[in-house]
Inverse folding.
């Protein structure tokens, strides 16, 4: 079976006794289409000659992609299914289409060692992308694109008391509170601590170790990242190096042809967290600001979803927006059909293949799964893994805001390149409505 899935074999993912495969994006896409009842997914997208586009590449970083030394699997400290195999394809897509984009924004998840989302601090996630740690560096395929004149880098998640999956500020209080787990953002007053930020020293934004005055920690240890080992990786030590926040004007052209559409394409890791929240937050603010002819599109070929080994996250699962820490309760075996994707259980082979367990196999494994409480627990003979987020939840949220998921590569050949000043514009003023009724006009920014 190919990575995208073979139409006449795709059903075997859920109907046969044991399926082994190294690429499960076909499995994911099958359920994405199956549960899409409102037209969120699309196979094609119309782009006119005078339309414009920007691209956001979310968190293509080592901790989500590479194997820590000495650890054969899972890939990365915070596993995202098939992120490594997707990286070179994304690189080629950007190289082939770079001149078509007004802006290409790369984001970097960057956490202090005492971040509220970490299991070491009472949160649900394994420590990852710690300040000035090699795991927080961009993947080499993305670093190869650093000389593109329209590329930029922003940082997010730097405050210890607030989580920010999204690279754009959470201005919707209800959604902000919904996406804060563990002890993050107590009181719900952390909106200004979320979203992406530029570095004051832009010359360091691509560096593996971008912050000065902090120890440079190489990615040489496969153990859980503990506070005692990284004492100076704190927000207090980098706060003076954090610059202005990422804004709509950083990604939407100040000038566009009258009647043209600007598309913000978003891709990267992970599709159900950082990609999703970036899309949601942008879409909400664009709508609130009264901007017209701007759409948000997820590039599914270059997006992968959180697929976490249970040993590394204490059996954390989600069902109907409720955290289930006791996976022995039947989340993988007693859920009625139609089962969403997070109710399927896999094992990961030493060769990187994925085996989908049948319902009976999941029931037989329940006692082992229920014993998984701590990260790096090696007492279980098999490595169990599962997707975290129900597809239905993603589709419901996207449908409400008109966000689309493009299942195939976008065809940008009809668009005029923005490089070299070849596009002529009739000036269109974009006025943004704020909650206090004032208006702002986007101004073009000069790249230094």
């Amino acid at each position: 079976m190919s990575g995208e899935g073979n139409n006449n074999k795709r059903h075997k993912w859920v109907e046969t006794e044991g399926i082994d495969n190294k690429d499960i994006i076909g499995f994911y896409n099958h359920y994405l289409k199956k549960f899409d009842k409102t037209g969120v997914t699309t196979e094609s997208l119309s782009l006119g000659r005078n339309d414009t586009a920007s691209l956001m590449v979310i968190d293509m970083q080592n901790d989500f992609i590479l194997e820590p030394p000495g650890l054969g699997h899972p890939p990365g400290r915070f596993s995202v299914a098939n992120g490594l195999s997707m990286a070179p394809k994304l690189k080629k897509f950007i190289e082939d289409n770079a001149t078509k984009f007004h802006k290409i924004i790369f984001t970097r998840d960057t956490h202090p060692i005492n971040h509220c989302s970490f299991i070491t601090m009472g949160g649900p996630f394994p420590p990852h992308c710690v300040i000035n740690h090699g795991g927080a560096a961009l993947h080499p395929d993305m670093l190869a694109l650093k000389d593109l004149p329209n590329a930029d880098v922003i940082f997010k998640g730097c405050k210890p008391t607030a989580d920010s999956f999204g690279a754009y500020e959470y201005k919707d209080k209800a959604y902000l509170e919904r996406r804060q787990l563990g002890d993050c953002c107590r009181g719900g007053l952390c909106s200004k601590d979320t979203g992406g930020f530029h570095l004051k020293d832009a010359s360091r934004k691509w560096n593996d170790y971008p912050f000065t005055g902090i120890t440079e920690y190489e990615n040489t240890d496969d153990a859980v990242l503990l506070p005692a080992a990284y004492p100076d990786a704190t927000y207090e030590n980098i706060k003076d190096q954090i610059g202005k926040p990422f804004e709509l004007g950083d990604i939407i052209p100040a000038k566009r042809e009258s009647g043209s559409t600007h598309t913000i394409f978003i891709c990267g890791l992970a599709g159900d967290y950082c990609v999703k929240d970036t899309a949601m937050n942008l879409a909400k603010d664009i709508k609130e600001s009264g901007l017209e002819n701007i759409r948000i599109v997820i590039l599914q070929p270059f997006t992968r979803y959180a697929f976490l080994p249970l040993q590394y996250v204490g059996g954390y699962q989600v069902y109907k927006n409720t955290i289930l820490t006791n996976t022995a309760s039947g989340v993988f075996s007693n859920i009625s059909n139609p089962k969403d994707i997070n109710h399927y259980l896999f094992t990961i082979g030493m060769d990187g293949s994925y085996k989908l367990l049948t319902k009976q196999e999941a029931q037989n494994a329940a006692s082992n799964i229920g014993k998984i409480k701590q990260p790096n627990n090696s007492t279980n003979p098999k490595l169990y893994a599962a997707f975290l987020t129900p597809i239905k939840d993603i589709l419901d949220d996207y449908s409400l805001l008109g966000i689309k998921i493009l299942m195939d590569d976008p065809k940008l050949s009809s668009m005029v390149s923005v490089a070299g000043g070849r596009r002529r514009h009739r000036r269109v003023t974009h006025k943004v409505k704020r909650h206090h009724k004032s208006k702002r006009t986007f101004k073009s920014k000069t790249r230094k």
